[in-house]
Amino acid sequence: MPFGTRTLSSGSEHDFDRFYVEVLRPIAQTARWAVLRADELAEQGTIVNQAFRHLQSADLVVADLSAPNGNVYYELGIRHAISPGKTILVAARGTELPFDLAGQRVLFYDLDFTADTRFHTLYARALNGEPNLDANPVRSALTKLGLHSDPETDHVAFQQELNLKIDRARNVEQLVAVWHWARQFESLPISSLLSLGYRLAEAGDYANAVHALDAAFPTAAQDYEVHRQRGFYLRKLGRLEEAEAALTRANELNPSDPETLGMLGGALKRQRRYTEALERYEAGARLSPTSLYLAVAQAGMSIIATPHDPEHGLTLYRELLAKIESDPGYEVDSWANLVAAEASFVLGRLDNAYAHARAGVRLGAGRLDLESATEQIRMLDDAGFPLPDAHSFVRWLSQGAAGAIPANAGQAARFRKRIIFHLSDVHFGSFLKEGKKIDAHRFHDSENTSRLSLELQEEFVKAMQRSGCEPANATIVLSGDSTYTASEAEFDLVRDFLNELCGSLGLEPRQVVVVPGNHDIDWFQSASNWSHRFDNYLAFAVKFYGEPLFRELYPLVTWDLKMPGKRPAPNELIYYRADDTTAFVGLNSCVFEDNQNHYGFIGKRQLDNVSRVLDMKKAPEIRIAVMHHHLHPFPEPLETRKGHDVTLDLSTVRDAGMVEQRLEKLGFSLLLHGHKHKPQLRETLVRDPLISSSTTVRPLIVSGCGSTGVSTHGLEHNQPNHFAILELLQPTRALGADFVAVEWRELTVAPGAEWATKQRWTLKG
Q1: pTM above 0.90, yes or no
Q2: Residues 279-321: pLDDT tens digits?
Q3: Repeats (TPR): which ranges (predicted)?
Q4: Domains in the chain, please, with CATH?
């Protein structure tokens, strides 16, 4: 409405401030409305943004149309367009309304407004929801056109729209806006309200989480889950008696739900009714003996109830920690790591506590989980159980719960795109065939071709310019089979190739990831001394990187590189390099490769070593594994076989299923490999029955490179030479957001051919 005194079209003076103070506001307050006018806003932000926020979120808006005012008309249009909430139109009697508003229901009042009792009555009725006085013509028209949905007329479409709004919200302000939009409707879907309540609670807005679930009644009167979650949020607000009542009702509706018993125990614990709380936790643990939530609550409550005799609780903590750390699924379970952090802290194992807590936060622990752990430690300390450093640990852990949604939004603004040039099977070297020397490598300086370093230099420069990536953020990955026979002379060719390529691009040796392939194993050495078969490869790595950098990149190799010394085990040839967002881990898939055995293998010991390196180095979130041999499925067409014939490819990674599953557990997002001279790109996930189905394990993105440098003898079915360009688009792997772009560049075997893009994909997180 306008402010101050204005001249109406009739020529009369009208005091809008007095009309607001003496009529509109007191009648609305009598009807139990909280009343606010635009000039009474006292919030941060621009006036326009504040006005829009309130126009969207207000349960009711009153618009006074008495004076022709562009702001009033504009804001009324905004209200009708963005909110399904109620709007009441009022105007001084005799006002000439614009044509588009003349057909709407308007409450007219006399200029002697304090004495206009008829208006007072009609206005009070409208405030109390009298039908047809608050219709939204824009909303009605859009609903008829199918551009808006209504739960009364199309329940399914409305639920889909509401769920999309909830999923799209990225911070508490957006979630509250969704709630303000949704609460204007009747018959809201219960499942959507549960989801919205959870998201609001995760963001720390427990009050609106309770309001959202209140909207589920009376439909949800017999729904134990609504009572349970509402009770939990009430408990977080400190309204403990109401929380106990809601949780007790949930328990009556479903006495076999262990989660309800745990939440009820939490409400009783905070009322210092420790014996009753412990009984609820124990009952819940009997119903669900595998629940970490109930187990850790029972352990803590046992100590809080009897801090002078804590041994039983400490025993429970020890058993719980041992159980978690022996479970192969804990490595990717944020809640398991937080429970292990609490148990370790209570048991005095501080380094272990901080390590598990960091892992829990890195794996995506939410606000509710972090608060659960910190509250229990705080209560143990308050109960008198000696916990040195409790306040600093709680404060440190609580910082992980303070971020907006998503937690890494600030990091994304500082992130500079990473680009990876994935090469494989360049095959520098030669072999004998029928007494003739055959060159295994395609590229040489001649009239028709250039050496590979020059070919790729031009390609890589163009790619970095196109993507806006600085050389400092580029990585070259060479996923094995750099040579053909693994001779020292062939490795010298590889070193010359990499030195020239890096020098022309401004890259340092540390920006190159190299892993061994089956052709990088010295078969002649393996015949005479099996443990020496990696000698030439290791000598090449030391020469290329320099010994200080080699020691840094291969943290498990302790051999002094002198011939009499003990060689590293094949499962210790692990490459590791990381920056603030991305870690590269090179694996040795040639553990058993020699002159007799030709197949890929990684093994549990090597995977355990990888896990140890990741923990030791505190690896960042984006983790990229590199190895030579490919995982299933076969990247090539198979010849037709008879029914009794067996399809067998001995060159595959024999323990591929275990390797893939373990890499997923260790938080790897990408696996780069080569070997078959045929490119492949897929997303894959090996489910583990020991991991809860509610635990988010994201698929592994597997990018297989063709052969970048082999000559035509190694290219089947007219397969071209190939390399891949991968652009990391985000500092984290966020669900639904663009994560990595993969481009295939290929060069056919035809004379005069040029590198060309075969395909480009953008994969979501």
Answers
A1: no
A2: 999 999 999 998 999 999 999 999 999 888 899 999 999 999 9
A3: 224-257, 258-291
A4: 5-144 (3.40.50), 290-407 (no CATH), 419-634+648-764 (3.60.21.10)
